[in-house]
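Sample log: Oxidoreductase [UCPA].
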Amino acid sequence: MLFMTSSVIVSAASAGIGKGIVAVLLGYGYNITAFSRDESKLRALKEEMKLKFGREINTVVADLSVRSDLENVVSNHREKYGSIDNLVVNYGDPKVSSFIEISDEDWDYAISMMLKSTIYLTREALRDMIRTKHGSIVYVTSMTVREPIEGFSISASLRSAVISLAKTLTHEVSQNGIRVNTIAQGYFNTDRFRDIMKREIDSLSGMKRLAGEIPLRRVGEPEEIGELVEFLLSSRSSYINGANIPIDGGITKFPL
């Protein structure tokens, strides 16, 4: 069952996938620290969650690529909730471009935003989880790790590294009652996704065209990822560990 005071940190939480995760977890009773670099969107998220659920979330303005910001998130969460019981690492999107056009600066930023942030947040979460002998970590990755897409070399490379990290951690921390899993998201109805659709064609017809390629004939909603994340945090998934679970409507063809 859910620990009655179970807390969770959720990154990149002010919109899109992160917002969907926050909404679902709050509905299940989690104590949430949500962080994002967009202060106005965080403020709107806090107000919306309070109105919808009658409960407040803890919000911190922080950039995933800035270590001092992450240190502030961790200290703020511990001050409010005592310890990090669960961790959900969601990411912003790195640059989408052909490999030859990606600069060293683009790679450096993405490595800080996706990989170094994961390492730091995980290390801090594990300090608490090992002490309390329970906890769950979920990393939100992408279908690009299973089925590469042109222009997504940064995303596929770094998210693959995150999956490898998760698998390795299961052999190091599971004896302490800690599970680590990843999910591989497909196409979801977010502002970012709609912006990408508009580059080729208007948003609605673009989504309809893409949906025709998905076996379920639709793109996903952020809350559907939230439900999967909550399941992986909860004891209902107590024997799922080190898994990379696709949530993509069946669009990826790679069988493993």
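Observation: Strands lie at 7-10, 31-36, 58-61, 86-89, 135-142, 178-185, 244-247.
Observation: The helical segments are 16-27, 39-53, 67-81, 104-132, 153-173, 191-200, 203-211, 222-233.
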